[in-house]
Amino acid sequence: VKKKTNKWIYSLASMAACLVLMVTGVLQINQMPYASVYMTINPEVRIDVNRKDVVVDLDGINAYMAVQTRDGINADGEDLIEHYDYRKKDLDTVMDELVDLAIDMGYLHEGGTITLSLDADEEWIVSHGNHLSDHLNEYLTDKVTVTIDIEQKQPQQSPEIPTGPIVIPVDPGHYGDSDYGEDA
Predict the structure, then answer these.
(1) Parallel, antiparallel, or unpaired for β 147-152 and 113-119?
(2) E strands along 8-167, which residues?
């Protein structure tokens, strides 16, 4: 009887461990960024979303890379999101609320421009580009008239790496017979 009880307890413990691993995996997948929307009003913020368009991270970033502020972070972008809670909100809601904050803080005004740079796979960009623009236009209809530009975020170019043989000129008269450049 004791052997059957132990077998049953081990089986139950194994199933519980598997369930915990599955739940943890699903939760981690829902917190992984799938796409990013860079919303530039000046300030610029990066909105990271998961596959369900729920915001998983929000950063104030440097809108103009030539202008470096503290640690490369856009101080205005940080001010815009300082007390803002994005958790468990969808992308449309976060964009609406950030635009409202930008208007209240004086960053966005009549005749201004909002640029949305999308960084994701081609399918996500195609399916979301027009929707995000239309949504913001509709949301801002009675608030302020702005221009909304949509663009695909260009990946940073890595420096060109030469692919041919590398030649290092050496003056043979400088060394003696030793392999280490010392006279023998």
Answers:
(1) parallel
(2) 35-40, 44-49, 55-61, 113-119, 147-152
